[in-house]
Amino acid sequence: MKHNSFDSVLSALLTTVTVLLLYSCGNGSSSTLDNQSGEVEGYKMKECVHCEGKGYVLKNCPECGGRTWYFCTSCNNGRVECFSCKGRGAIECSYCRGRGDVDGAHCNSCDGKGFVRCDRCFGQGSIMCSECGGEMRVECRKCGGNGNLEVTCYKCGGEGKIKTARY
């Protein structure tokens, strides 16, 4: 008789554990979404009209204000100072080392001036900006040049569906 009582307690305990496991895993629970009927917790689900079922809405990019670009802050009119000549347009003559003569004789390499035209900027003192390619505008990095950002829909929480009346 004692054995029977132990078996019935064990059986009841196993049943309780099984029910708890099924409930916590979502199997047989009324709180889970039934994908075929589109119901959750006794509510019917319908497409969110705010996001048109996508789960997100488009908002103007705060970085570029929806323009898709912003003015380049690295340059001046599409150009930056040449780093070889530091904006001077000329560099020290490597033959005479800036003196203008070699062993007392006139330097033919720099015509006695001690400097030669910078080959990197061709004597202009500036080169094209690598950030904007000389366009003075840079594609917005935040929105990727889209002008908009996808923001999770606040009405449906990104689900694309909302609850309707209980039935």
Strand portion, in percent? 25-35%
Portion of residues in helices?
10-25%
Largest sheet: 3 strands, antiparallel
Radius of gyration: 37 Å
Description:
- There is one protein chain.
- 14% of the residues lie in helices and 27% in strands.
- With 167 residues, the protein is α+β, with helices and mostly antiparallel strands.
Task: Name the features.
single chain, 167 residues, alpha+beta, 2 domains, 3-stranded antiparallel sheet, two-stranded antiparallel ribbon, 1 helix
Question: What is the strand and helix layout of this fold?
Answer:
Layout: H1 2-25, E1 39-40, E2 43-47, E3 56-60, E4 69-71, E5 79-81, E6 90-92, E7 101-102, E8 105-106, E9 115-117, E10 126-128, E11 137-139, E12 148-152, E13 161-166
In short:
It is built from 1 helix and 13 strands; from the N terminus they run αβββββββββββββ. The chain is of the alpha+beta class and 167 residues long. The strands form 6 sheets. Strands 1-2-13 form a 3-stranded antiparallel β-sheet, with no helix packed on it. Strands 3-12 form a two-stranded antiparallel sheet.
